[in-house]
Amino acid sequence: MKLICTPLTGEAMFLLDLNACPNDQMERVLLTSIEHQQLLKSGIYEEINDSLKKIIDDYEDEHINTSEELTEMLRILKKNSLPENPELLEKIIHLTQLAIDRKTGVFFYF
């Protein structure tokens, strides 16, 4: 199972780094294999990777946690579409906006 999550506080972000963040201290999206493939095929990961010099793929953990990077990621997400699963894209947009508002980050555990 692939996980995309946003810690709700700075302390939760620290605990996440230690693999000790309680579920009630983060919002998360657990991706099925199909959902992960939909995102891969959409080119969204690739565009985020190219723009932010990140490596979001099948075998990497990655995080986006600066205000500038989160704002750019939000811009990329909002200009793209995922016709086969628009609800999934909305969930990731929500996580990104939450990270901006809470001054935390979006974490990808693949």
Structural overview:
The protein has 110 residues and is an alpha+beta fold. It has five helices and four strands. It has helices spanning 10-17, 33-42, 44-52, 67-79, 86-102, and strands at 2-7, 26-31, 61-64, 106-109.
- Main β-sheet, in a few words? 4 strands, antiparallel
The number of helices is 5
> Compute the gyration radius: what is it?
13 Å
Helix/strand class: alpha+beta
Termini separation comes to 8 Å
Main β-sheet, spatial strand arrangement: 2-1-4-3
How many structurally independent domains?
1
User: Uncertain spans, ≥5 residues at pLDDT below 50?
Assistant: none
Helix content: 40-55%
H/E series, N to C?
Answer: EHEHHEHHE
Q: Notable features of this structure?
A:
110 residues; alpha+beta; 4 strands
Walk me through the topology.
Blueprint: E1 2-7, H1 10-17, E2 26-31, H2 33-42, H3 44-52, E3 61-64, H4 67-79, H5 86-102, E4 106-109
Antiparallel strand pairs: 1-2, 1-4, 3-4
Helix pairs in contact: 3-4, 4-5
In summary, what is this structure?
The chain is α+β, with helices and mostly antiparallel strands and 110 residues long. It has helices at 10-17, 33-42, 44-52, 67-79, 86-102, and strands at residues 2-7, 26-31, 61-64, 106-109.
